[in-house]
Structure formats: C-alpha cells, structure tokens
C-alpha cells in the first residue's frame, strides 16, 4: 500500500542513532576536566533532547552548581570534544537502514530534524553512513535562537524544503510537541531516550523497532491544524 505521505522526517539521537555512549563519554570528560564528578548513563540520557546548552545547564546543576558563565565556559569544550569523538560508539538502531531503503523505494523524501547542532549532526550522519539518504538536515541552530524543538519552526522548515503531507518519527516529548504543532502526525520510538513511557507522549503511534515503522506509517493519515 502506498504511503499517504510525501516526506518522512526523523529525529536523530534516540531515534535513528543510539548516541548514548558518545554523549555520556563526552559530557563526563568535560565534567572531569572541570573538577566535577561524572554522571551515570541514565542520568545523562535524562538530560538529552534540548541541545548542548540545556544539557550543560542540567549537568552543571547536578554536579555542584554554577552560573551561566560556567555553562558558557564548558560549551566550547563539549562541542570540540564531541566533534572529535561523536562516532566512536554511535550506531544506527537495528532496522534503520532497511526502513530508510524501503521508504526511498517508494519515492518518499527523507529528512532529519534534530536539536543537535548542525555542525555536529552532518559529520555524525556521514560517519555512520546515513547522510546521503536524506534530502535535508535541520539542526537545532539551523534557523537561529529559539527555534529548536519543541518549537514547530524546524518541522515547518522541513515542510517548506521537502513538501507535504509529512509524518515525523522521534523519541521525545519535544518531537511530539513540535510536529503536532506543525500539523504533522508523529510516531514515537519506545527504544529511544525518553525518560517517561512513550505511550504518555501523545504520539499518533508507538513502535518498538524499525521493523514496525512502515506498517505504522501505512495506518497513519495526514492531520491538519
């Protein structure tokens, strides 16, 4: 059955890629260099999803506190360290490549909309062999300050670049809120980084693996706002 969508957009961390190892390793390296304690993986993942600045704000608060100047000091350290190590442990989730191939075979345009900085996203997608599969990549800073998810702005930009109707696939409440505010139905991934049950996020569907993606998309219909 042909899908009722022209474009399918994807979040990155916790959706297309399991980036947990590299994110945690980078954050803990930066914290250690600043004389702070390290954080366990589950704590790090609970802070992922709103971009580097929000991640560092929460990490600083959790490791002794500090003001905006501390976050500003750690920010370039994190970006530089992550850029140098962002594909050491990060891998596509099982079934991602097959699902993307199946969508492409139907003539679907594929996009990435992430809150990760664009300058960190593009090399990571290239290193994991996925970049060439996407018609466009929109990072958390692509459209300027204040436009990252849960703002609908990057989803609306995806629609402008790629056309609609569209659906979105993500793992967080920010993905659900952004897409639905843009009039785009959302499929939530239960295997991602969400710290609450994905069934509570309000997505139109939930999948437990990428093997379930195409059937879930076939059951969806475009929505309007």
- Helical proportion, percent range: 40-55%
CA-CA gap between termini: 26 Å
Please compute the radius of gyration using only Cα atoms. 17 Å
Counting DSSP E segments of at least 2 residues, the number of strands comes to 8
Class derived from helix and strand content? alpha/beta
Order of SSEs = EEHHHHEHEHEHEHEEH
Q: How are strands sequenced across the largest beta sheet? A: 5-4-1-6-7-8
Tally of individual helices: 9
Largest sheet: 6 strands, parallel
Q: Provide mean pLDDT, rounded.
A: 93
Identify the quaternary structure here: single chain
Low-confidence runs: none
What gross morphology would you assign? elongated
Instruction: Give the amount of beta strand, in percent.
Output: 5-15%
Question: Quick summary of this structure?
Answer:
Helix content is 42%, strand content 12%. The chain is α/β, with parallel strands linked by helices and 225 residues long. The strands form two sheets. The protein has a six-stranded parallel beta sheet, with helices on both faces.
């Amino acid at each position: 059955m042909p899908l009722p969508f022209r474009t399918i957009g994807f979040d990155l961390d916790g959706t297309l890629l399991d980036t947990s190892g590299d994110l945690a390793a980078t954050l803990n390296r930066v914290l250690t260099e600043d004389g702070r304690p390290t954080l366990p993986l589950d704590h790090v993942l609970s802070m992922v999803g709103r971009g580097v600045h929000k991640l560092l704000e929460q990490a600083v608060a959790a490791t002794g506190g500090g003001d905006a100047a501390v976050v500003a000091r750690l920010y370039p350290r994190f970006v530089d360290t992550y850029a140098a190590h962002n594909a050491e442990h990060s891998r596509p989730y099982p079934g991602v490549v097959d699902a993307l191939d199946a969508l492409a075979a139907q003539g679907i345009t594929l996009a990435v909309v992430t809150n990760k900085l664009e300058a960190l996203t593009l090399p990571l997608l290239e290193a994991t062999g996925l970049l060439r599969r996407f018609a466009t990549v929109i990072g958390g800073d692509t459209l300027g300050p204040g436009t990252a998810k849960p703002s609908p702005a990057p989803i609306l930009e995806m629609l402008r670049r790629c056309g609609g109707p569209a659906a979105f696939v993500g793992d967080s409440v920010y993905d659900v809120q952004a897409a639905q505010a843009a009039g785009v139905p959302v499929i939530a991934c239960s295997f991602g980084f969400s710290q609450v049950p994905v069934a509570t996020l309000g997505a139109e569907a939930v999948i437990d693996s990428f093997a379930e993606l195409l059937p879930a998309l076939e059951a969806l219909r475009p929505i309007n706002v």
